[in-house]
Amino acid sequence: MDTSMTPIAWFAVALSLLLPWLAGALLLRRLWPDGTPGIWPLALGYGYWLALLVGALLLYPLSVLGLRVAFWLLMLGFALALGWAVRDRRPSGRETLQSLRSVWPRDAHELGSRLLLVLLLGWLGLRFAVLALEVWWQPLYPWDAWTTWAVRARVWSELGRLAPFVAPEVWAGDGTGAVYTIEAWHYPALVSRLSLWPTLAAGDWNETAANLPWLGAAIALALGFYGQARLWGASALTSLTALWGLISLPLLDTHVALAGYADLWLAGALGLSLMAFLQWTRTGDKRQAALCLALAATWPLLKLEGAVWLALLVPAWMLVEARRRRIGLSLIAAVFLGFGLAWLIGLRFEAPLIGLIEIGTEAIQLPFIGRFELGYHDSWGVFAQTLLGLENWHLLGYLLVVGLVVALWRVARGERAPWLLSGLALVLGSLMLLWGLFFLTDAHRWAEQGTSLGRLLLHFMPFYVFFLLTLWGRTSTTSA
Amino acid sequence: MKHSVLQASWYRPLALVAALLGATLGLWLLLAGVYLWSDDPARPTIRIDAPELQLTAGEGAQSERGLRVERAASNGLILVQGAIRPFEARDYRGLGWRIDGLDQTRELRVIWATSVTTRKPFDRLISPDERRAGVVNLTDDPNWAGLIVGVGLAVVGSEPEAEPLLFESLTLQPRRPALSAILPLAWNDWRHDLGWTGRSINFTDAAEGAGRIRPLIPVVVWCALAALIHLLLAPPWRGFRTWTPYGVILLVGWLALDARWQWLLLERLDQTRSLYAGLEADERQRAGPDQGFYPFIADIRARLGTEPVRIFLVTSDPASYGANRARYHLLPHNVRLSATLDAASGVEPGDVVFLMSPLDRTAHDRARSELVFGDWRLAVSSELSQPGLGTLFRVKSVESED
After folding, report:
1. Which chain regions cross the lipid bilayer (chain B) (predicted)?
2. Per the CB 3.0–4.6 Å rule, which of B68, B360, B392, B398 could disulfide with B383?
């Protein structure tokens, strides 16, 4: 039952989010030396994402003990991790103050820069305050939330166990009531467990509590983005301006205010992962590679298309090193040729444990992803409208087009920086995947109805903003 | 321009300011053109084609090209009326027409009726100039006011041997705004907001249904104009190779859009606050869009108790909003949505069937206390009922098919 909550319950809910957040952030913080610009926001951002995702993942195996027992065991684990993370780290008040002052950019001498920083921070603060109040007051609103993601979370929360969700025909054959069914019973369960997480602290189902992880995800995404921007070398003002560009996106804000969909989670996990990937291509920093891989592993667990988006990493990785580049390009060409051949001949077989794989001129069917009927559909109009005509992204669609032109021009002029090649491969690859999905399959109907194209573009927007920032930084220094 | 002027320290900021101001002026001129000459979606040009024309005096019939009037009435009058929905006179300035065969010997009059004067319509003689233009402007006519419920044309003085007339169409011409009204109209369109809707999660189109402009396009045009003007004033081939001014233009445009979006968010938050602030979870459902059926669902939950039961929710449209919201509110009861039931549905004694109105494929045999799904019957006892919403049944036994 959606219950009213006592102050103690709300305290427990806050603890359920803050404790993992702190533990994750401080564990990550230990990986970098003091004085690294942007490291605290990065640790806070990635710490939330990794901790909450790990917690939600571990709920599944531990649920044999009962959900609430599992939850409090994990919270104990986070508390212990926090304790371990802060060992040997008891900075004096003076050191803490100095470390906070180091966050304030040393290069912001001019009054104008400081004023702009304050204004930007204020604007972002206002945005988050408005979104937070929407999450606080608005009942569960969007369709897929109360037909799919929150349905499972609510059932698990009220039953105290992870009741299985099965296909309707299996449900019909089970008269015990031990299994449940929904139309999207086969969707990954991780997002539902993220929604479930704070309600386990509350002791009962509550929509506001269930939606709070979305607010935390947006704040953490902002922190992680800012941290990565600073680590990239952008000034505080530039980083904050780029962050404003990201957080100001209307469709992203909507996914926070009307919490409950999985797309924000995939956007954040994908964006933060690819930002770390780009850092790794530039510096070879293995910590960034680890962040990338850890978050990338969650993509297929968040949404079905996350498994498809994983394919983007392969060509991006192959383009990183010069000696691998030719091999990589050859492999990519071979994959395309092989796929083309399979498509022409027609490939159909049942893979053990995985399921049916079919590649042919009529349809493509891949395990865990689904079946798509093939055929060309002219979706240019709706594609252009979604990216360039509607209010989803402010001016980002246009900026992305300009950015791609600039990046391609730089590559054409002989620039071969690994991060530039990989970043371009990721952006172009994502657009090609979306093109393939909405132009060559029956998914074009979703584009025409306007139900999913915007949300799939949202998955890539945090990375697109970061990629444009990397281009701007180089462009602004070379043109001065 | 002199090299010394271009190199002056004040030139770059001045060029940027000039670009911003020039773009603003250019945008205003473009918007003026759009508002003056394009249709307002809320008050579009209404074209009444021949099939929608009614001949109320005279003899004729519909033909391929239009309404062909062969003969006038005995008094020499031909009266053609358009089938229209009532409209406000202030939204439309007059009537246009396409008529073949009308000569100067016959008088043409426009006729209209208002909601107040339906029995005594007004008419006005159309001048030769207006006949040549094919449109009559009625804005100066004091009787063109209020709610117009009928409009048409009268041809007076037709001789028996006169050529047939072909009425192809009538057109109601919307009023064009005055120049002074353009800025307020544009501001209204800029601020137009539908609020949170079911489609908000898929795309942001707050201005849908606004007058003429969608907010993004004017900003894009403004940015493009400003960039172009700056390019002309400070061209790269004259040494102006910094991207900063273009970045500033972009940021100003972005800020304009984001300031609007922030304003819309605040207004939507205010709506959310007024609906839900201070309410407990259950009270929010009773105050929200489900208020029509939530109390009944709450009664069902109270009747069923806390132990989850299997509920077969039968509704004519299992994909509908109401059915899915009912399922959500009934959780953690184990609900299955369907349009009908049969032996393969897996219904067991002790299960619950919730027939959600409206239904078209189920009958309740009260005499035998059975639900009838085609050839399949379920013995049930009625638990709870709410007219217009549905009925809750407990399954007693499952009959085999007849």
Report:
1. 14-37, 216-234, 246-266
2. B392
Phi, psi (5° rounding) for residue A7? Answer: -60, -35
Write down which residue in A254, A272, A304 finishes a domain. Answer: A304
Residue from the list B199, B261, B309 with its beta carbon closest to the beta carbon of A248: B261
- Pick the more confident residue, A441 or B128: B128
pLDDT digits (tens, 9 = 90+) for B136-190: 999 999 999 999 999 999 998 877 777 889 999 999 989 888 888 888 888 988 9
Q: List the structure tokens of A404.
A: 């791609």
Q: Does residue A361 share a domain with residue A255?
A: no
CA distance B34 to B352: 60
Judging contacts by C-beta atoms under 8 Å, the chain B residues touching residue A3 are 281
Domain that includes residue A343, residue range: 312-479
A276 in the same domain as A407: no
Task: For residues A210 and A208, give the distance between their C-alpha atoms in angstroms, rounded to a whole number.
Answer: 5
Residue A349 corresponds to which tokens in the numbers above? 């077989």
Q: Which of A126, A136, A180 to mutate to test the interface with B (most CBs of B within 10 A)?
A: A180
Helices A207-232 and A7-29 cross at an angle (nearest 10°) of: 20
Query: What does the H/E/C string look like for B178-191?
Result: CHHHHHHHHHHHHH
Tell me the chain A residues in contact with residue B217 when contact means C-beta distances shorter than 8 Å. 389
Q: How many domains does chain A have?
A: 2
pLDDT tens digits for B321-333?
999 999 999 999 9
Does B265 sit within 8 Å of A127, measured CB to CB?
yes
CATH number of B46-174: 2.60.120.260
Q: Which residue of B has its CA nearest to A255?
A: B201
Answer with the one of A273, A304, A335 that is the final residue of a domain. A304
Give domain status of residue A98, yes or no. no
- Same domain flag for A421 and A296: no
Q: Does the complex come out with an ipTM higher than 0.85?
A: yes
Q: What is the largest CA-CA distance in chain A?
A: 73
Q: Taking CB atoms and an 8 Å cutoff, what residues of chain B touch A255? A: 201
The count of CB pairs under 8 A between chains A and B is 169
State which residue of chain A sits closest to B202, comparing Cα positions: A451
SS3 B60: strand
- In this complex, which of A177, A180, A253 lies closest to B265 when CB atoms are compared? A253
Domain boundaries, chain B: 3-38+181-261, 46-174, 294-398
Of A123, A143, A171, the CB nearest to B198: A143
* Whether A155 and A196 share a structural domain: yes
Residue A371 and residue A281 share a domain: no
Tell me the residue type at B295. Answer: P
